[in-house]
Amino acid sequence: MAVTHGTPGAEDPVVRLEGIGKSFFGVPVLRGVDLSLHAGEVHALVGENGAGKSTLLKVLAGVHRPDSGRIVVRDEEISFASPRDAQAAGIAIIHQEFTLLEHRTVAENVLLGREPVRRGQVDRRALEAETRRLLDWLGEDGIEPGTEVARLSVARKQVVEIVKALSADARVLAMDEPTAALADNEVELLYGLVRRLRDRGIAILYVSHRMREVFDLSSRITVLKDGAFVTCAPTADLDTDQVVRHMVGRPLEALYPERASRPGAVRIALRGAGNERVRNLTFEVRAGEIVGLAGLQGSGRSAIARAIWGIEPFTTGTVELDGVPTRVTGPRTAVRKGIGYVTEDRKGEGLALRQSVRDNTLLVRRAACRGAAARQAADLTRLLGEVGVVARGPHQEVRYLSGGNQQKVVLGKWLAVRPRVLIVDEPTRGVDVGAKQALYRLLRELADDGMAILMISSELPELIGMSDRILVMHEGALAGELPAGADEETVMALATGHGTAA
Amino acid sequence: MSAVREQVRRRSEAPARTRTFVITPVLVVYLALAVLLVVGSVLVGVHGGVLLDHGGVLNILTRGTVLGLVAIGQTLVIVTGSLDLSVAYLIGLCSLVAAETMAGSTTLIVPGVLAALAVAAVVGLVNGLVITVLKANAFIATLGVALVLRGYLEHNYTGPAGSVPRAFQHIGYDRIGPVPVAALLMLLLAAAAWWYLRRTRTGYHMYAVGGDVDVARLSGVRTGRTIVTAHVLCAVMAGLAGVFLAGRLGSGAPYVGTDAGYDLESIAAVVLGGTALAGGRGGVAGTIGGVLILSTLDTIFDDLELDSFFKDVVRGVVLIVAVALYARRRTAGRSA
Asked: Do A308 and A178 share a structural domain?
């Protein structure tokens, strides 16, 4: 069991990755990456989206087999044929999506597949006792082994996920953006948990975008850029600027297009709008403008989008479209009124994955328009050209496209009905840098054509680089508005409730 | 810390500490059954009869016995995230195998029962392997097996065949007071299935596979084996239903299972009992409640002398309302 051994600060690495290379369809994603993890160490892995962090995690987890390089676990070279092999070697990945059975208890989840058996039946007392022992060992006394997982908060589910990994004798925990789904106060609790894990001799690979967490927690930082190893240095020898420079390694200006010269008339205006999740929202978005919407997870950014689009409509205040007070009661009215919504969950809500590029692109038009307008598909080629989709043809199923091309299909779907207002939620999530740049240009062109764009993003550089103005949300209300080119600290200060509007 | 977040936090975590009284689907099912018995008694009373007299109880339990046997098995596969549409033809086949093997001889009772159950187990094994090895969707796989069984029955039988000795026919008719012995045996098997799902490792793994097959696999559960086990047990339960029906009829009958629609009826009872059709939650206790509701409805309709079309309409409405209520509870639970 994980509890019995473990010597903090041991010199030999528990896991060493050497010269890992991996390509998909001839495109190199990882090139000669080295990484070593020591017992009792928090090792941060940073890099932009598309830098290869998640691929490296998947190699470590046994999901992908590297094309070159070797994996050494406790001085023994190992090749993982499946995630099971990686688990057996003591490596566990804590993903952003939890692998828990919602309707089973904490104990049933923790010891799933390894339930203690006594006289032919599961020894439920031992099951709960073992779970409690692991929880106690971690100093987590707020969780009862007999509670159904569905009743726990996200932060506690994360603890259960970690305990589950530990019960399988994990010596290495890789945590992928562990704070992404947590509220501020929960982040503090996670800090404590990570430190306790470290003190108990677990090697932790901490993948995060958030520089503050990286510097608060880690003892060493490895930076990846475009699939290649850039540097690995003790955290004490680095500062935020240096790390960011290593990560970006090129002038940011090139990535983002020029801003709008002069915005036009007001396209959409909210006046004192609110519902269960957000309150008292008053702002406008003009034609030709890209307005960024910043805020922490759960601050109500997506709730605004969902309310404007009528999924959970506003219950107070008014919404005006081109100066006309409008009530949007559902997605169908939203489409008819000329509002498009590129959702955060591209695969789940944005695309019919098993349908063709053509069918996906025409989905909204066929649903919203009647008669000839719905049937005509003559300009499909023009549409696809406009968004720059690279596919084998209009009949290819969209699930075979890259993330960037999928997102272009989603945008094409909306362009087909020429909306007046477009809401984009995390438009570049899971998209590589090249495709990102293309998406940025596309969004800017749409704005220049007179569309009003409301852009939600958790990636501050992107939000700051793209927006003509930035609205910052904090706990369901607007905390303030910032002009183009505001710096990250100011945005974060407002988002965490510590700042005042400029 | 702002008041709003604190409030949200408290609301979402309160149930973790205080284990309050929870209204489970099982409780809802038995409450519904109680209400149905009261309402039914009143209606039948107005019509000039008595619902829960000697004959009424006997009627409810007898109807519930065969459906109960099939639905217990169906619960296992549905909890595992699968489905078995072949049970109706399998019941007919097993009644024939049992009756023809016994051929009227008392000494061949045990071989007859064993032969029927063995055939059932093989069919269940085929179902399970088609789903796990050939990766066919459970709906299609078991429908395919059902068609194969139908072809065999239609080609070889035109009507009842075989003969069950008088000694074995007792199983169909013996009773203690108003309670048929077979109903008690069915409830005993239900208790065994409950224990199996709630107390054994394989039972735990059935919930896990039904809840999320990838999570189960990555946690080291042998998912294929679990699914096959569920299908074999389900088929054996259907086989038992066939043997019991042979005992009641005195011979085997090819369409005894399909005429009563035990395939869809058993799924309806399971769903009515609060088991999620997608798998991963629910159990045998609810299923027995669902079975009793369906058989009580039938008995009430008989007592009221309603025509059978109206009967089906009411059954359909009851089923839809039940599922809609569960769905509502679930979404309400999610947003809370």
From this structure: no
**Cα–Cα nearest to B249, from B167, B180, B153, B169:** B169
A275 inside domain? yes
Locate A106 and state its tokens: 């904490």
**Strand A421-425 with A339-342, pairing:** parallel
Contact B333 A101 (CB under 8 A): no
Chain A neighbors of B203, CB-CB under 8 A: 122
pLDDT beyond 90 at A500:
no
pLDDT confidence band for A382 (50 / 70 / 90): confident
Which pLDDT tens digit goes with each residue over B69-119? 999 999 999 999 999 999 999 999 999 999 999 999 999 999 999 999 999
* Nearest Cα residue to B126 out of B89, B155, B157, B99: B89
Q: Is residue B149 part of a domain?
A: yes
| Contact state of B201 with A142 under an 8 Å Cβ cutoff | no
Residue A31 backbone dihedrals phi, psi, to 5 degrees: -135, 105
> Quick one: average pLDDT of A443-458?
92
Q: Are residue A274 and residue A345 in the same domain, yes or no?
A: yes
Q: Report if residue A4 sits inside a domain.
A: no
pLDDT tens string A298-331: 788 989 999 999 999 999 999 999 999 999 998 9
Number of CB atoms found within 10 A of residue B96's CB? 25
Contact residues, chain A, for B208 at CB < 8 Å? 101, 104, 112-113
Average pLDDT over residues B25-40: 91
Specify which residues A274 forms β-bridges with: A316
Residue B13 inside a domain? The answer is: no
Asked whether residue A344 falls in the same domain as residue A229, the answer is no
Q: Is the pTM of this model over 0.90?
A: no
- By Cβ distance, the residue of A115, A120, A152 closest to B204 is A115
Angle, vertex CA A120, rays to CA A117 and CA A125, nearest 5? 40
Three-state secondary structure readout of B144-171: HHHHHHHHHHHHHCCCCECCCCHHHHHH
* Nearest-angstrom CA–CA distance, A265 and B146: 66
Task: Tell whether B24 lies on the interface with A, counting CB pairs under 8 A.
Answer: no
Domain that holds residue B239: 26-331
Asked whether the beta carbons of residue A99 and residue B195 sit closer than 8 angstroms, the reply is no
CATH (domain of B136): 1.10.3470
Of A122, A185, A476, the CB nearest to B200: A122
Residue A375 has pLDDT above 70, yes or no: no
What pLDDT, in 10s, does the model give residues A419-438? 999 999 988 877 766 678 88
- The interface residues of chain B toward chain A in range 217-236, judged by CB-CB distance below 8 A, are 218-221
- Number of A:B CB contacts under 8 A? 88
Q: Is B15 on the interface with A (CB under 8 A)?
A: yes
Q: Are B125 and B231 in contact (CB under 8 A)?
A: yes
Chain A residues with beta carbon closer than 8 angstroms to that of B214: 99
Both ends of chain B: CA-CA distance in Å? 21
Please say if the pLDDT value at position A82 is more than 90: no
Task: Please tell me whether residues A135 and A211 are part of one structural domain.
Answer: yes
**CATH assignment at residue A240:** 3.40.50.300
What is the 8-class DSSP label of residue A349? I
Q: Note whether B195 contacts A121, CB cutoff 8 Å.
A: yes
Number of independent structural domains in chain A: 2
Residues in chain B closer than 8 A to A124 (CB atoms): 199
Mark which residues 186-205 of B lie under 8 Å from A by CB. Answer: 195, 199-201, 203-205
- The count of domains in chain B is 1
For CA atoms B304, B306, B310, B315, the dihedral sign is positive
Pick from A113, A142, A143: CB nearest B219: A113
Contact assignment for A112 to B13 by CB distance below 8 Å: no
pLDDT in tens, B281-324: 999 999 999 999 999 999 999 888 888 888 889 888 988 888 88
pLDDT exceeds cutoff 80 at B331: no
Q: Tell me the per-residue pLDDT of B118-145, one tens digit each, with 9 for 90 and over.
A: 999 999 999 999 999 999 999 999 999 9
Domain range spanning residue A78? 13-252
What ipTM does the predicted assembly reach? 0.84
